[in-house]
Every structure is written in structure tokens, then in C-alpha cells.
Amino acid sequence: MFVWQISLEPSQQHADQWQIQRSDTHTVQPNYPFFHLLDALHHTDYSRTAQQVIEGKGLNVKDFGELCEAVRQSLGLVEDGLPLSIQPFERWEGERVSGRLLWSAVAGMFPSLPRTQVTQPPAVAPDLPADYASWTHSFSMLPLDPSQRSVIGAVQRNALTVVEGSSGSGKTYLISAIAMSALSNGKKCLVVSKSINSLRRAQKFLLEKGVGELSFVVRDLEGDKLMLADMLRMSADSKNKASYNPELFKTVLNKTQREQGKLDQAWVDIHLPFFGELSFTDTVGRFLRANRTEGKDLLLSQLNPSDFSFNLTEYDEIVEAIYASEPLFRRFPTLHHPLNRLNHKVFNDYDKDKGRAWTEGQVRTLLAKATALHHRFIGQTNDYDESLHDHFEQYYNDLALYIKRIQNGLEDGVIRFGPDFEKPISSGEKLYGVFSEKYKELVAAKERIGGIFDEMRQVYGLRRYFEFDFPAHFDNRNIRKISELTKDFDGALKIWRRRVPSIVREDVRRLNAKSIHSELDFREQIRDLETALDAYLEEFNAAGLYQDALKHEMLTIPKRQEFLEDVIARLEDTQFYLRDFDDFCIWQKHWLALAPAAQKTVRTLCKIKPQNWQAAFESWYLHHLLQKEFRPDFLWDEDTLTNVSIYGRELRQMLPAQISSQWQDRKNTALRGMKSSFSKDYKNWFGKDNRTLSANLKAEELFHKHILPLTETLPVLLTTPEVALDVVQLSKMQFDVVLVDEAHNIPKQECFHLFSMAKHLVVFGDARQDMTPFEEDDILEFCKGIGAKSHQLDYQHQDTPEGWIRFNKIAFGTPFKRTPSGRSALDSTVVVNVEGRYDEHTGTNEAEARQIIDWLNFIEPTPSNTYPVVGIACATVQQRDLIAAQLLRIRQKKMAGWEKIQQLYLNGLGVYQFAELQGQHVDVLLLSLTHGTTDAQGTLTRHLHFWNSQLGFNQLHVVLTRATQKFYIAHSIPGRTALGVGGGQKFPRHLYPFPPGNLRRLHTVWRSRGC
């Protein structure tokens, strides 16, 4: 019901002994959570009664007994034992029939207990804007990375801001930067954290920058009262202003804001969503990565950019198409398969078996009809060819007969009449022939030959199938001329006859209904062929076998026959390759489902066949996207960078003087007002004898009555949630900025009051370091749950080796962006298997404890002749206590090395369980994994299954991100072949030194360190 403060110190004279002391400075506090619960259940007011007893310093036996009796009666409890006696706490199994009041005491370490309780969640609008106009700038004295600078801007704009960042991302550092910026803007800050170490780290940065005198850490109001009094007195005595030129400051601030605005706008532009969720920078990075794998030139001449829209939807469709197409194409490596011609409905409207059956039936029917028609074409063409040959042969025979008759008549005339027969007939001969029979016969013979020649000329003239020129005016009795012409005509006729086959072929080649030879009666047959082919094509296309309709513009029968032969060849190919229908159906269904742009891309990739299809596409696609969407404002010039650097450095040098001068004036004004209106209180808290005068006063009175002069003097207060809840809240003070550090470890009920105390509430945390991951009861989860926007810190600021940064990035998702340290993890990490035995009953591993203490001998002084900050981390609380006890024994008995251990303690040596390292950062970490084999057979303890839980993983995340210089790991896990986890469950996948199971993620990185 009450908690008495005591001091517990190890004895300096006797080892293993402790001294318990209680002085006047130690207080008595009610167990407020207990009394709050009673009040809530029974509608009582014991919380107030208990507080009044303590505040009145009237906690005597009588009052204590009366309060306990009242509680007992309210609860209807049975009292055991004598009043006010201390008894051991009784343990029992099962429930008691009735409640009992046991007089007992428990000694231990208890957290601060807030006397105020807030259980009703505040009504919060997570996107409520704040009074941004009251902030003149967002600069700080601390250099910030881009993600940190964006947080400062968000803090000034929003009433509620959530900031998440893993260990080393600079959360506490950023809190100090925000506080400095707030101070420069005349704003008051309240920093809240359960970790005093985090509060001191935040104040440390203020001290380093020369504005630490404006801050104060309030851990325990009564315990820190004397230090607060000293701080107030010194502040009141400080009258001198720092050297500060307001006009020069405004000038430098204006120049810095102008140049920084240019840089910020360019930064915003290149980090805005550019391609889906990717920024311009991310898109360029993806292009460069893809281009290194497969150059953009592969597809540059193959794809036309005008066929693409270059948007995220199209990109995702094509990437998905590539992902699905590549394995199918490797199985069916061609885009020119004969089945490609088939109508798409075969694959879209039918299943595989039905589509194949339908196709087979159509091919069979159409092929049979095409073959029959083809035979008709062949027959009719052959008939026409033969008929034309016969016609030309008859023509030749007719003319050859005339020639033969002329040649025979000439030969007979020469034989009968002699050589004079060939001579022309003179006029004298004509007269002489009237009287001579011989000459009458000669003239008659010549005339007869002339008549035959004329008939031949007339016959040729009717069908001039070849070229021959007869004289226009010719004496048909000129036997010599007839003989010569007949001989020439006979030669021309024979030449033509030799050319008849080619003439017939050419005629047949040009054959159609209009070009039929005039002497042949084939017009109806040829017209029927043309009509039959047209009808067949109409039937073919109506059947819908092929996607593309067949058509022809052939004018001649042979061309139509060739076209028909091509159709038959297509059908035969389709019929033959139907054996591939089942496999092809899978590909074609996929292909037809692709968008046109995806089809073009996949077709090109199938043709080029790069090693990495997606990289080849990405490099081409993103290249054209960046060309299309690039804007000049994505870049900034070197002059801007130079100006920002110069002006920023100058401004940071002026900020301490500006802050000090501004708050000096405000402090003086506030203290003059207090001195005038509350002179006694001024002397008690700010006067020369304030230590003496305030000794009997409660520090709470200062907060409640004079919060204005207090915060004008100390505008940055750093405190715990309990102090903020019980003390600061009662002053009704509303701070300009309230910053909550390590929010993942603060119950939300302890921070509900902060919403009404802040104009700007900023919550910092990391869910991966939450030691109650499934409770969702912390203020970080509360703020995220109500929809507050979360800002991520993207950079790693711990000066740790590169290998550790990569390891933590892979294992825990910590930021990887950082300035290279140049130090190798290989030289900074030591992992040793000590082959110790884990005692499940005590939770300790003595061999590892000895190894950890031995490693302290390797700790060397720094160049400044001081020891580094060393942390010892243990997997179990029992192992922590074992090592701490052994170190204490060495110091008490002054065993070998005790002086060094003493110096290490003075420099910050601490022994922790993994979860207790939150908020701690050490130079050297000695880690004892503790768990190991429990017997000689090498059976691993079942306790290892804890590391497969989310809480175990979070503890590993905490411990493996603490060290900055050196890392020593002692473990007792045997090699791969000798393992068997009790219970047959999976081996924890998070622990490197234990190769079995699913450990590749961490194992690979640790191996890269040479461990």
C-alpha cells in the first residue's frame, strides 16, 4: 500500500554483504495504482486520502492502521496475524474462499508510481494543422539528414507528428535539434521519456551547442530540488547578454532560407511519387540497375515508343506478362507456329479438348473440299493446254501443207520446163503462148503456184500467230520471188512451231474468263472455276477456322490454283501440327490475354532472347519514361549547394547568441514580474539563499504557481511521464512542443495528458524495439492507430563498421544510408564458442560468464587516455545478475584487475539483460547468449524457442544495434552435426552462431565478417 525509499549499497568492508540506509531525503509514496483500482471498483477516494497522509507527513502508526482497517472493511477482508507485523508472503494453490489481509513487506526496485491516472483516451484529430505561421524558420544548430529536416518541417505544420526510426537513426539527436529550432523561434519544449539516459543524451547535445543552460532534466522532483534551485539561482544571476546583432541575423537567415528553399524544392520534386510509389531518384536507380544487367540498346531499334503509354499500370502489366511468358516460351520456343493462324475463339471460347476436336473437324472438311477443287483446276487447265496445243498444231499443218504444195509445184515445173520456169513471164512469151501448147502449160503451172501462194497468204492473214511480212504489191507469177518468200515463210513457221510450247504456257499463265483464246470454247468452264474458288473462300472464311480471313486478288487461273495450293498447304500444316495443340493451347491462351503493348514487348524479347528479360525491358522502358517525364527542376546547380553550405554554417554559428539573447530578455521580464508580485516566492526559488529557503518547500509549488517564470528561465524541460503527469500537468501549462522519446515503451495511459499540454506533439519510437509487441498498449501504437502520419528516419548515424550496418539492414530493416566509416567489421567482431553448459534451473552459463569477464582484460584506453563505454549484455536476467555479482566480488575483494573494472564502471560500464539496453549506446559490447546445451549428449535447451517469438526478435534487434566500436560474442551452441532442440521444434532462425535451421539471413552476413 505504501513504498518507502531506501538506499541499498554493497559493503566496502565485507564481500557479499549489503548496507540498507534510509535518510531524511528518502520519501514515502502511496501505491497509487493500487488505490486507483480500489477507487474505480468501490467508488472510494483512497487515492486522495493516502496522498493527504503523505503530504501532511502524518504517516504514523495510528493513521497507517486506520487507513489499512478502512481498506480491509471496504473489501470485506479477513485479517491474519497481529496488526503492523511483517510476515512472509503466504503462497497457496487455488482460490481462497474469502479474501485475506496479510501484513507483509516486499523489498525490490519499483518504478515511479504516478499519483494521477488518466484512462479516458483524448479525442484527437490526427491531421489537425498547427499554427505554422508563428515559426520563423526551421533551422537548427545540428546538421541534419534530409529525412530529419523533413520531420522538423512536419512538426511545425502539424499538431501531431509520429517519427519512427530504428537504433542509430538519430531519434534522440533529432529531439535535440527540434528543441534548438524551437528555442530559436521562441518556443518552449517539454521532452518526455521513461529513459533518463535518453533525456540526458538529448540534453547533452544542447550543452555541446552552448544552450544547455536553458534546459533541465527532472527525474525525481524532490531529489532534483536542490539541483534545480542551483540552476535557477545561477540563471537569475546571469545578466550579461551574448554578443548578438539582430539585423545581421535576419539577413543571414533570409539568405539561408532562400537558398535552402531552392534546394528543398528540388529535393521534394525528386522525392515526390514519380512512377507509382517510386520517386524520380528511385526510378533512376532502378533504370541504372537494370541497364547494368541488360543495356537499353537491345530493344532500342525493336520497339516503337509511340506504341506505349509509359504509366505504372502498363508497366505492371508488361512485367507480369514477361514473368509469365518467359518460362512458357522456353517450353514452346517459337512465335511462328502454324497453329498461330487458328481463330482466337478456339482458345477463348472452348476448352482444350473441345477446341481441338472442332479444329480437326473444320480442317478435315475444308481440306477435302479444297483438294477436290484443286483437282478441277488441274483438269480444266490441262484440257485448255491440250486444246490450245491442238489448235496451234492444226494451224501449223495447214500452212505447212501450202508450203509443201508450193515447193512441190516449183520442183515439178523445173523438172518439166527447165531452168526457164523460174524466170518471170515476158510479154512476148505471153503472145507466143497463144500459139504454143507448151508455153500454155508453163504459164498455167506458174499461175497455179501463184494461186496456192495467194491462198497461203490469205490463210496466214486470218491468224497471224507469228510475224511475217509479205509484199503489198506482188506478181503472183514471179516464181523466183514466190520461191524465196515461201522459203522464208517456211523458216519463220518452223521457228514459231518450236516456240509453241512456251506460247501455250504463257497463254495458260494468263488464262482467265476474259483471256481465253478466241478459237477455243472454254469460257464457261473457266468462269465456273473462278466462281467455285470464290464460293470456297466464302465458305472457308465463314467457318472461322483462322483468325485472319483469306482473300485473293488473283486474275488468272494458274494464280488462283497457286493460291488454292497455299490454302491446302496451310490446312495440311495445321492438320499435322495439331499434335502440339495441348501444349500450344497453354501458350496461346496466355498470349491472347496480354495487352497489345505487352504482346509487342514479349514478341521482341522472344526474338532477341536476352539473358535477363525483365532487366532488358526495364532498361528500355525506364529510359524512355525518364526522357519523357524529365523536368529541369529536378536538378540544382552547384552555386545553390555552395551557398546553402556557407550560409548554413554562418547561421549555425549565430544561433546560440540569438537564442541566448532572446531568452535572456524573456527571462528578465518574467523574473521582474515575479519579483514584483511574488517577492517571497522569488527569494525562495531564485534568490541567493534559495537552497536554504526552499529546503522545506515542495518543488511542486514552483511548477503549480510559477510555471511561467520557470519556463521562461528553463524553456526546455526534460522529464519522465510520471513527473509530467503528476506535476507539470497541474500547472495548466501548454507547451509549444512536447517531444516523447522511446514512445514504444511508454503505456498510452501515461501520455494521454500530453495531448492537451502540447500545441505540437511529436512522438518518437520504433515498434521493432517494443518489449510488449502484442499488447498494442503504448503511445506509439495509439498514435498510429488513430491515423497519425508516420515519418521514417532513413539514415544510419552510428559510427559503426560497414559489415554491421549491412547485417542490421538485412536482419532488422535498419537504415542503410550513411557516410561510410571506413572500418571493417572483420577487425571489430569476435565470436567464440566457449562450449559452456546452460543450467535451465538457474538460467545461467558460468563458462560464458568467465569468458565475458576475461574479455574485460582486452579493453584498451582510448587515445585520450580514457576507457571506452563498455556494455555487457546477457540473454537472461539470471546471467546478468551472475556477471554483476562476480564483478562486484572482484571489486570488494580487490582481486586481480579490480582497478581496471573500477575505471570501467566510472566510464559507464553496465551489465544488462538484452531488453534493458534500450536507449543505451556503448563503444564496446560484450554479449553472452547464455543458452546452450544442457547435457553431455548435446541437447539444446527448450528456452531457445524464446528467440523465435516476436519479443525475442525485438530483444535481438535492440542488443545487436548498440555497439559502435567493438563486438564480442560468447555462445555455447555446438556445431551443425551435434544439435537437437528439445521438443522437436524449429531452431531459432535469428541467431547466427547456430547454423542449423532456417538461419541463412543472418548467417551469411556474420560469415562475411569472418566470424
Sheet with most strands: strand arrangement: 9-12-8-13-14-7-15
Most strands sheet = 7 strands, parallel
Radius of gyration: 54 Å
Beta content comes to: 5-15%
Mean pLDDT: 83
Tally of helical runs:
36
The secondary-structure class comes to alpha/beta
Unreliable stretches (pLDDT < 50, length at least 5) are 93-97, 977-1011
Description:
With 1011 residues, the chain is of the alpha/beta class. It has a 7-stranded parallel β-sheet, with helices on both faces. A 5-stranded parallel β-sheet has the order 16-21-19-17-18, with helices on one face. A two-stranded antiparallel sheet has the order 1-4. The longest helix has 66 residues, at 352-417. The radius of gyration is 54 Å and the shape is elongated.
Summary tags:
disordered C terminus, 1011 residues, single chain, alpha/beta
Summed up:
The protein has 1011 residues and is an alpha/beta fold. It is 51% helix and 10% strand. The chain is built from 36 helices and 22 strands.
Strand and helix layout:
Elements: E1 2-4, E2 7-10, E3 18-21, E4 28-30, H1 32-42, H2 46-55, H3 61-75, E5 78-80, E6 100-102, H4 146-157, E7 160-164, H5 171-184, E8 189-192, H6 196-208, E9 215-218, H7 225-237, H8 246-271, E10 273-275, E11 278-279, H9 280-293, H10 297-300, H11 312-331, H12 345-348, H13 352-417, H14 427-432, H15 437-462, H16 479-498, H17 500-509, H18 523-543, H19 557-577, H20 581-593, H21 596-608, H22 613-629, H23 638-677, H24 679-686, H25 690-693, H26 699-705, H27 707-713, E12 716-719, H28 721-728, E13 735-740, H29 754-757, E14 758-765, H30 779-785, E15 790-792, H31 802-812, E16 829-833, H32 846-855, E17 870-874, H33 877-892, H34 898-906, E18 910-913, E19 922-932, E20 939-940, H35 950-959, E21 963-972, E22 980-981, H36 1000-1008
Parallel strand pairs: 5-6, 7-14, 7-15, 8-12, 8-13, 9-12, 13-14, 16-21, 17-18, 17-19, 19-21, 20-22
Antiparallel strand pairs: 1-4, 2-3, 10-11
Helix pairs in contact: 5-6, 8-23, 9-22, 11-20, 11-21, 11-22, 13-15, 13-16, 13-17, 13-18, 13-19, 23-24, 23-27, 31-36, 32-33, 33-34
